[in-house]
Design brief:
250 residues, alpha/beta, single chain
Length: 250
C-alpha cells in the first residue's frame, strides 16, 4: 500500500488536523501558519485526497481512523492533540474510541455523530446521484458553495475547489458510502477525552441537533458557536477560530 502524504511543520507537542470530504491538507494553511509557532502541526491528506490522491480511497470511517492511528504510530507520535473537520470529525471520533489514551485533547469541528443526518441539505444517496449525473467538478463546486456564508465569493473558496479537483469520482463515492454507513451515536459515551465542539450557526451540513447530541453525550465537552459562519469557520473567521482552539489546547 502506498503511504499517504502527511504534512509536518513546527515543533512542540503534536497537533493533528484531519480534513473532511472533498478536502485536503491545503485547507489548513491559515492554521499551519498560526499553530506552527506553538505545536508540531501534523496534516495528513486522507487516501484519495490532495497529495495522497494516488492512494486507494477507503469506504469506511473506521478503516481511515485505523490508518491514521497506524501512521502516527509509525511517526513515533504517541501523544497528540486531535482536531477533525466534517467527515474528519467522524474519523477523529473513531480514533478517540479506539486510541483515546493517546489523545490529550479532542476537537470535533463542524461535525456530527452520524453520517446520514436528518435535516442535511440532501441525503447522502442524493449526493451520490448528483456526482454521477453532473460530474465531480460541478457537484464539488455546488457542495463547496454551501460551506461559506458568501458562497463562491468567499476568500478561500478557490482552495476548496482546487482540493475537490485533486480527487476522483471513486474517492468521492467511497467517502459518501463511508459517511452513509457510519453511526457513532451509541458509542459517544466511550469518548472520555476533554473535548471542544466547534460549530458555525449557519452550517448547512450539520444542524444544531447534531451538535447538541455530541455535547450531551460526550461527558467532558464544551461547545463554541461562531455567529454568521457556515461549515468552514476556519476559513471564514480564521483568526477567531485559531485563537479559540489555542485557548482550549493550552
Amino acid at each position: 500500500m502506498q503511504d499517504i502524504y502527511i504534512g509536518d511543520e513546527g515543533k512542540g507537542f503534536p497537533l493533528v488536523l484531519v480534513h473532511g470530504f472533498l478536502g485536503s491538507s491545503r485547507m489548513w494553511e491559515s492554521q499551519i501558519d498560526f499553530f506552527k509557532d506553538y505545536f508540531r502541526v501534523i496534516t495528513p491528506d486522507l487516501p484519495g485526497y490532495g497529495k495522497s490522491n494516488q492512494v486507494k480511497s477507503h469506504n469506511s470511517i473506521q478503516s481511515i481512523a485505523n490508518l491514521l492511528l497506524n501512521c502516527l504510530e509509525e511517526k513515533k507520535i504517541d501523544k497528540f492533540y486531535l482536531l477533525g473537520h466534517s467527515m474528519g470529525g467522524m474519523i477523529v471520533q473513531e480514533m478517540a474510541k479506539k486510541g483515546g489514551d493517546k489523545i490529550s485533547k479532542l476537537v470535533c469541528y463542524s461535525t456530527g455523530p452520524r453520517g446520514e443526518m436528518p435535516g442535511r441539505f440532501e441525503t447522502v444517496d442524493q449526493s451520490r446521484e448528483n456526482f454521477k449525473k453532473k460530474g465531480l467538478e460541478i457537484t464539488a463546486k455546488n457542495i463547496a458553495k454551501t460551506w461559506f456564508i458568501k458562497g463562491e465569493d468567499a476568500k478561500y473558496f478557490d482552495i476548496c475547489i482546487n482540493a475537490g479537483k485533486q480527487t476522483s469520482m471513486e474517492t468521492a463515492d467511497n467517502s459518501l458510502v463511508a459517511i452513509k454507513n457510519w453511526n457513532g451515536v451509541d458509542t459517544l459515551k466511550n469518548i472520555k477525552n476533554e473535548t471542544l465542539i466547534v460549530w458555525g450557526d449557519q452550517d448547512k451540513s450539520y444542524n444544531l441537533e447534531q451538535i447538541q447530541t455530541l455535547e450531551t453525550n460526550i461527558e467532558n465537552s464544551k461547545l463554541i458557536i461562531f455567529k454568521n459562519c457556515a461549515h468552514n469557520v476556519h476559513l471564514e473567521q480564521p483568526d477567531q477560530f485559531n485563537h479559540a482552539i489555542k485557548n482550549f489546547l493550552l
